[in-house]
Design brief:
The protein is α+β, with helices and mostly antiparallel strands. 12% of the residues lie in helices and 25% in strands. The protein has one domain (69-255): Periplasmic binding protein-like II (D-Maltodextrin-Binding Protein, domain 2, 3-Layer(aba) Sandwich). It is built from five helices and 13 strands. The chain is elongated. The two termini are 66 Å apart.
Length: 257
Amino acid sequence: MLAALSLTACRGMRSEEEPSEVPGNGDVLAEYPVESPTPTDVPIPDPTPTSTPAPTPVVPTIVVSDNDHVIFMPRVEYIDANDRTCPLASLLFSSLLYTVEIPGEPPTTHFVGALASDLPEVSENGLIWTFNIMDGLYFSNGTPLNASSFISGGGMLNAIRHEDATAIVSAPSRLALQLNLSAPIQFHIGLGLFNLAALPDGVANLININYVAETASFGPYRIERFAPGEGFVLIRNPFYPNAFIHEFDRVIILFNN
């Protein structure tokens, strides 16, 4: 609109003898109409699909030395602190008992005390099992570990079921963990069934893998570093009582996928 007014004003200032600079009659904009673009004027996109650039390779941040013990495991979203077959769980979350192999004897499972001072005491009727927890135990962040660390306050369910038997877990005292059974079960079955892991207060036994790095643990090792998607660097836990289990100064857990 400003351009039209400017041209009109300039043309009105000419003398009658001065020839018009624009041929033809009528308004200047009418003499030179702006044509709308036809569909052929619209650029047509190239139908050839563009190739997706290759992802940038992830550079490992965990450096492994010759003295490190390396364990490969599948990447998981959760770990069960009571799963003794999971290397990460067994190294970070110790349980009441641990198993040993005795040379010269059949390859059966032998339990000895870990966080419990010994095997449980069982009442004559087989319905009350009592574990005595070792005194002076601490989680990797320095908080005390006691009998309540194995029941609902520490994330464990307070009822364990096996076939027709149900065991209610309680802590009658600071260092006594008791299981009251509705029916007796075989001793070796109970040892495996009641071999509970110690967990900090408020932590469930099924733990998100990203949350594990922030969780106080109690096992032979504690977390020194967590690299998401890559793995864990574990170092010896100074609060763990059974120092002879520490075969390596550092254990590297690498996700193999």
